[in-house]
Specification:
The structure is a homodimer of 352-residue chains. Chain A is of the alpha/beta class and 352 residues long. The first copy, chain A, contains ten helices and 17 strands. In chain A, strands 1, 10, 11, 12, 13, 14, 15, 16 and 17 form a nine-stranded mixed sheet that branches. The radius of gyration of chain A is 22 Å and the shape is elongated.
């Protein structure tokens, strides 16, 4: 069996046992709180993990792009939620083709999106389930008020090829309570209009552990929980020992006693810090911080007697694992120093 | 001929005439100042443009990764500079194989790197040309003093399979003068030690236009000049009308009068702002700024009466085009609204 020492750097290595433990832990939380788990595959983009998530008890998966959903459908995944406004003839035709193959649901936050869906699915054998996307504080997509949600829900309910699924939100980090009361109000408004609200779908790994109690939410779409990263550790979701994904890097230069350079820059670790200081943490080297990135170089600042030597290999826990996955064509599953399997990141680069 | 309207979004579209004009302009500057131009392909990662750059008069190309150099060699490029410390048996073997196929040169900033090169190339038919990497103010790789440069230059000169190429730097932005005097001092120190300094190689697009006059630099390695981006515009290199690369995106949501959402987030535009405010500029929509990114959503803030409508397509000039290229598997060359050609980003994902 190949060893981690045989891998060229930079490379993504994933501690398989940690990822599996993270899958089990989230599923157990969902089960204990009567939540349906619908993991977001944007984090791993791998059918391998999607199937493991389903096997652990997930009701289906979440994808953000039709291209990702197509890859997952090709791999045998059968229940896919695409919480995105799908617009334009080309994408709508692909959506319709996908709908013929798997159990599909989508979201809409405007009548424009709904018109496209309704026109495309008017003659579909099975109606397409559509949820109303709600802006419960994130300030991204979504209707702004419960009244707007009712307008869209009615439009879905009355369109021939569509069926109302319910409500969907991506809550702002730490604003779980605000999202909850927003959704409860919208659910009530839908009920007052005679509209059924079967699914209320929420997401985000950091707040998942606070979800479930006395909640109107029926399903949860966490993504990052499978790998975790520095951001999740900063949010208290787990420790560095729970992080499954690391970037294996080589020290290529050591120009001064306090500066070392890795062969991993913004094209390997990404510049996305999610607001954290520094760009990554070196496992087992306290006092070493990735303080700067250029495209193919990572600047490490050494303090408190931390030492590195040229040619040494290190493992970096990135700030945001989902965007790191998206930079590499393959990942290596490991068990200690053994490489168990090398997998192509099948849904990487599926932009549309 | 397909139209830009036929492309799925998000997509990279490249105004071919602008890129060609940018190639010609840089070559003319280099020619007028007696500089050899050695374009960095990290920006485009395409043999198509590398060949155009050579045809315009470049002496060779620059790659940052062996994997990029292998792709370029496979495509017929014959003179490749790899200004990077190459370490580890696997990479050194690949470097040696590449050296058998093309005219290759590399850099080193430590004796550790040189030992690996010397051991690998001791029995090579042709010696490998090695330049000493110098930190002239960037604070990344490179020897810190002229004395250190002399030590490494001597080691290169005395190693059987290596030959001394000269000095290489990536200067800090705007510190051209400082870099120049550093390099002049090191050149003098090498001369005093009886060492020849055939090549002095510098880089960076923004400062290229100040290079050449009374300079010790003999060759220049600009990368971004071919496409340009918001950062280069901010640095005064050109205007938005000179930017060849844009990301074609669709407005997928318009939740409030001042907020619109694009289908292009950090996985399409990247979070790398190079210190700029905002994440991109919408061509032809003054008052529209990309003020936030999540993975697959770009938040646009509208002011001064700027208007967008759901389903509308826009073109975004990103802050840093080199990292955007690295996110997409293909690019489309355009002439106005016509799509001339679709090219795979051949060297994307060649991490090692």
């Amino acid at each position: 069996m190949p060893s981690i020492d045989d891998l060229d750097t930079p490379a993504i290595v994933i501690d398989a046992a940690r990822a599996e433990a993270n899958i089990r832990k989230a599923q157990a939380h969902a089960d204990a709180h009567g939540l349906k788990l619908r993991p977001h595959i944007k984090t791993h983009k791998l059918p391998y993990w999607a199937k493991k998530q389903i096997a652990a008890g997930a009701v289906g998966i979440t994808c953000q792009k039709i291209g990702e959903a197509e890859v997952m459908a090709d791999a045998g995944l059968t229940d896919i939620f695409l919480p995105y406004n799908i617009l334009g003839r080309a994408k709508l035709e692909r959506l319709k083709a996908l709908h013929g193959r798997v159990t599909l649901s989508v979201t809409a936050d405007s009548l424009v999106t709904l018109e496209g869906l309704a026109a495309t699915f008017a003659d579909a054998g099975q109606p397409l389930q559509v949820l109303v996307e709600c802006d419960t504080g994130m300030g991204r997509c979504g209707v702004q008020t419960a009244d707007e949600a009712v307008v869209l829900a009615k439009a879905i309910d009355s369109a021939r090829g569509l069926t109302l699924g319910g409500l969907m939100t991506y809550p702002a980090a730490g604003k779980q309570t605000q999202a909850e009361s927003w959704l409860a109000g919208a659910k009530q408004a839908l009920a007052a209009a005679g509209l059924d609200c079967r699914r209320i779908s929420s997401g985000g790994t950091p707040d998942m552990w606070r979800s479930g109690e006395n909640s109107v939410v029926t399903e949860y779409r966490p993504g990052t929980y499978i790998y975790l990263d520095r951001y999740q550790v900063a949010k208290g979701v787990g420790s560095l020992d729970d992080c499954a994904l690391t970037v294996l890097a080589t020290v290529v230069s050591h120009p001064t006693p306090t500066r070392a350079i890795l062969d991993s820059g913004s094209k390997a670790l990404s510049s996305d810090t999610l607001g954290l200081s520094d760009f990554g943490e070196l496992l087992g080297v306290p006092g070493a911080r990735v303080t700067g990135l250029s495209e193919e170089h990572g600047n490490v600042t050494l303090s408190d007697g931390a030492k590195l030597r040229i040619g040494e290999r290190v493992r970096v826990v990135p700030d945001h694992c989902c965007v790191v996955t998206n930079l590499f064509d393959q990942v290596h599953l490991i068990d200690g120093d053994k490489v168990l399997e090398t997998l192509p990141v099948a849904a990487r680069g599926r932009m549309g």
